[in-house]
Amino acid sequence: MQDAPNTFDMPLSGLETREEWLEKVAEITDEDGYVEPLGARHTAIFVEDKPTLLVSFETHAGIAALSEDAQPLGWEMTKALGWSSLCIVADGDTWFRDPAVYAYFDRLVDDGFFEEFDQVIFYGAGPCGYAAAAFSVASPGARVVALAPQASLDPRVAEWDPRFTKMRRTAFDDRYGYAPDMLDAAERAFVIYDPAIEVDAMHAALFTRPNVTKFRMRFMGERLDESLMRMQILLRVLAQVSTGKLTRQTLAKLYRARRNDPSYQFNLLRKTTTDARHYLTILLARKVLEQRRGPRFKRAMEAAGNVLVDEGKPLPPGFQTEGA
After folding, report:
1. The domain 4-260 is classified under which CATH number: 2.60.40.10, 3.30.870.10, 2.40.160.10, 3.40.50.1820?
2. Do residues 179 and 151 touch, judged by C-beta distance below 8 A?
3. What pLDDT, on a 0 to 100 scale, did the predictor assign at position 218?
4. Structure pTM?
């Protein structure tokens, strides 16, 4: 077997069509894995290496957005730690509700595929997070990381979620259906979400189980996977899941990286200004301006300071408005 870094360093970016991308992936995985179509909109990409398997659910658009080389997330763990990778790629947001995908996982179970690995980790975000939880039942004892997953889009369960109305005629009550129930066989699952997005918090509440750790990442926005990749903590989360070291406390330590993340800082500024928390706006803006130039933060800081002066309220120590 070739060394993983040599095999998977080839970039896949710049390929114009999904078909071209899959052809190139097939070339790369020819010796150590396979590419298998699963119906019209899904593909299984398997790469065998060490006995830890990451089963990731991704979309073609998501791969292009997250990876400079347009490679599946599992390949990053293959290159870094030598993990095996099974990536189920969807053409668009399908929630992987496809009989061809069900049949594929049924076959893996019948063949004892997951039993060949010492450890199996399922991962996904959003619709892919739903799939990671739902299909984890195929490998009892697996560990799961799901970012902002939906529990179901069955209108009888989640009629309060208005985002995906086009999916309401899709069956979520048959095989691999209700994601929280499918986690019952998992050793441990982590559901990570932004509670400021109310519908995501409502879905997360449905995942309440003894073997599920829910962790809130406030003000990180809708694309939690992009945020964690940008902060360089997503791969560390997966690595700590593998070693059994991921806890609420270690997640909190990793989440400290948000303090230097521009997207988080802007979201927090939007919240403090909307809520007229002028004192906090000054503290936030001053901290950001210590790190980098930020015209929007400077303007917000001055505006907040002027309001506090006009209202006769105290200013943070050492802070003066431009007119003072």
Report:
1. 3.40.50.1820
2. yes
3. 92
4. 0.89
